[in-house]
Design a protein that fits this description.
This protein has 134 residues and is an alpha+beta fold. It has two domains: 3-67; 74-134, no CATH class. Helix content is 46%, strand content 13%. The chain has helices at residues 3-31, 35-67; strands at residues 75-77, 93-95, 113-116, 119-121, 128-130, 132-133. β3 (113-116) and β4 (119-121) form a beta hairpin. α1 (3-31) runs antiparallel to α2. The longest helix has 33 residues, at 35-67. The protein is elongated and about 75 Å long. 1% of the residues are buried.
Length: 134
């Protein structure tokens, strides 16, 4: 099970476990005819609590993703090579620098100009930057 699907599952469980008791309380307050007095006080408390649970949930899964190395990586993935001797796909990765080594300007991959498959051109100083293969 991937992190995204498990995160969605936990979020659905969290919302259901929080929403069903809230729905029960709403019906109970209506039955007791006190909802007009109680709901203006309790709804902001319930809303803030739900918001805090979602924020804490996001921080926890963000920390898990960051610790596993899946967040914040800047690697360009080339086409995968499948070998018959190994049971998993072997992939080539290229390390692309975030800043130009000559002028220190930021390299934007979406706007970068490529000379060939191993050379990128800096948009500020127009120097060729070799891409390292890992």
């Amino acid at each position: 099970m991937s992190t995204t699907s498990s995160a969605r599952t936990i979020l659905v469980i969290l919302l259901a476990s929080f929403g069903l008791p809230l729905l029960f309380l709403l019906f109970l307050f209506e039955y007791l005819e006190i909802s007009e007095y109680v709901l203006p006080i309790l709804l902001p408390i319930f809303g803030f609590t739900l918001l805090m649970l979602i924020v804490i949930f996001g921080f926890i899964f963000g920390a898990i993703k960051w610790a596993s190395g899946k967040a914040g990586t800047m690697q360009y993935q080339h086409s995968p090579r499948i070998t018959t001797t190994m049971h998993h796909a072997q992939r080539k990765f290229y390390l692309i620098p975030v800043n130009c080594p000559h002028c220190q300007s930021e390299i934007e991959l979406g706007r970068a100009e490529w000379r060939d498959d191993r050379t990128i051109i800096c948009s500020r100083c127009f120097t060729d930057i070799e891409i390292q293969k890992t």
